[in-house]
Design a protein that fits this description.
Elements: H1 14-23, E1 29-30, H2 33-41, E2 46-51, H3 63-74, E3 78-83, H4 87-90, H5 105-119, E4 138-141, H6 143-146, H7 151-157, H8 164-169, H9 171-177, H10 185-188, H11 190-205, E5 207-213, H12 217-230, E6 236-240, E7 253-254, E8 257-258, H13 268-276, H14 280-290, H15 295-307, H16 313-342, H17 352-358, E9 364-368, H18 369-372, E10 377-378, H19 379-385, H20 392-400, E11 404-406, E12 409-410, E13 417-418, E14 428-433, E15 437-444
Helix pairs in contact: 11-12, 13-16, 14-15, 14-16, 19-20
The structure holds tyrosine.
Tyrosine (TYR) binds next to strand 2 and helix 11.
Length: about 450
């Protein structure tokens, strides 16, 4: 049933590509739609999107951009994923309300490496994994062309082409100038670096298209102006809308912070759960923006979501698609297995850590080795300790009514004692009353109550 997203499908034509971006709602602003259409149908093009490495991992916020590059690659164009080793040293003020701290060179290198590895999930790079197409993706780092550029030369070549008046008119600059936080000269100059990247890539790689999120419009158009002045060539830009919830919040954030692509930071299970729990009002937009699920299926899922609110068929499909892409078959399997356990499935050889993660939000009670030694801990008592039943009578009745489970297996004997072997080599036991009322018994060294 899992359908792994592969790149090697037949290439859609240019019309198909633009139509697809349109129905998905991915075209927020375009500098010259007609011109871009013509350029794309004149033959394979090169398109770039830049990513500043602000952490060792990308998060959900970058996925729309990576998917945009992927859509172009599938349509036969060459994507360039640019990691901003240089721009990351400065910090883009676009969409940011405060001046940012500078990252150290060592941290930046770690970030560049981490982010580059994740991009391989989305794009097929030239000469890697046996990719033989002519449009292999390129991974470039703007530090490579900026590190040797002297300040004086840069001011003479690039700075000279920037009218300060125009720079002051950009949204990213205006909003900060009017704020208390202000804007340093360093961040004010960020736009020159990104603009120059575009010119550099147009010269070195024939790249004439830059895409980005809607907050990148100012930087992208700055590059187009610079290209006209420095090379006389017409460059193109397009932006995608930002991925926000229906009440206007940025997607990809939970109470515990960002949803990361790195499985060490956000496990495949937590990643999967994030998408399963997207609101009905947001799920179809996520599917359109982030997946390659096609129009027919999209329409079906939209109808189902409308007709049976709360069924979450669209959410599950979204979660399955995204988790398979980012974490592979193994990731989606473990996420789905964990989800089944949450819904009463067998524990099998689920590990301690996995159980603790699946039931992270469930109340728990510590017990000591003493309590399970000898005769063990009476189930009726355990249920009360864990807060699942408020009296011995209630606990006994629940067992009789067949609504008590230990590690998702029904407990039928009210005399049952919880003993060491019930832990199955783990340090937690999952107790359940009824369908979804869970509690954990955690075995801790030393004292307990
Ligand atoms: N400014 C972009 C990243 C970027 C960096 C360099 C570029 O050439 C293009 C884009 C961002 O913050 O998302």
């Amino acid at each position: 049933m899992t359908q792994s997203p592969e790149l090697n499908d037949a290439s859609p034509s240019t019309d198909d590509l633009l139509n697809e971006l349109r129905w998905r709602g991915l075209l927020h602003q375009i500098t010259d739609e007609e011109g871009l259409g013509k350029l794309l149908s004149s033959g394979p093009q090169t398109i770039y999107i830049g990513f500043d490495p602000t952490a060792t991992s990308l998060h959900v916020g970058s996925m729309m951009q990576l998917m945009m590059l992927r859509r172009f690659q599938r349509a036969g164009h060459r994507p360039i994923a640019l990691v901003g080793g240089a721009t990351g040293m400065i910090g883009d003020p676009s969409g940011k309300s405060e001046e940012r701290n500078l990252l150290s060179a060592e941290q930046l290198q770690l970030n560049v490496d981490g982010v580059a590895a994740q991009m391989r999930r989305f794009l097929q790079f030239e000469g890697e994994d046996g990719f033989e197409g002519k449009n292999g993706a390129l991974l470039l780092n703007n530090f490579d062309w900026m590190q040797g550029y002297s300040y004086l030369e840069f001011l003479r070549d690039v700075g000279k082409n920037f009218p300060v008046g125009t720079m002051m008119g950009k949204e990213s600059v205006r909003s900060r100038l009017n704020s208390e936080a202000g804007l340093s000269y360093t961040e004010f100059s960020y736009m020159l670096l990104q603009a120059y990247d575009f010119v550099h890539l147009s010269r070195e790689h024939g790249c004439r298209i830059q895409a980005g999120g809607s907050d990148q419009w100012g930087n992208i158009t700055a590059g187009i102006d610079l290209g006209r002045r420095m090379t006389g060539q017409q460059l193109f830009g397009l932006t995608a809308p930002l991925l926000t919830t229906s009440d206007g919040k940025k997607m990809g954030k939970t109470e515990n912070g960002a949803v990361w692509l790195d499985p060490e930071r956000t496990s495949p299970y937590a990643f999967y759960q994030y998408w399963v729990n997207v609101a009905d009002d947001d799920v179809m937009r996520c599917i359109a923006y982030l997946t390659e699920i096609e129009k027919d299926e999209y329409d079906e899922l939209a109808e189902r979501t409308e007709q049976s609110a709360g069924e979450r068929a669209a959410q599950k499909r979204l979660a399955q698609w995204m988790t398979t892409l980012v974490h592979g078959e193994e990731g989606i399997e473990s996420a789905q297995r964990a989800t089944q356990i949450l819904f009463g499935g067998e524990l099998g050889n689920t590990t301690d850590d996995q159980l603790r993660e699946i039931f992270a939000d469930v109340p728990s009670c510590d017990i000591s080795q003493d309590q399970i030694d000898g005769d063990g801990l009476w189930i009726v008592e355990a249920l009360q300790l864990a807060g699942l039943c408020s009296s011995g009578g209630e606990a006994r009745r629940s067992v009789k009514e067949n609504s008590i489970y230990l590690n998702n297996c029904r407990v039928t004997d009210e005399q049952k004692r919880v003993v060491g072997s019930d832990f199955d080599g783990r340090s937690v036991i999952v107790l359940r009353r009824g369908k979804r009322k869970y509690a954990l018994l955690k075995l801790v060294a030393g004292a307990a109550n």
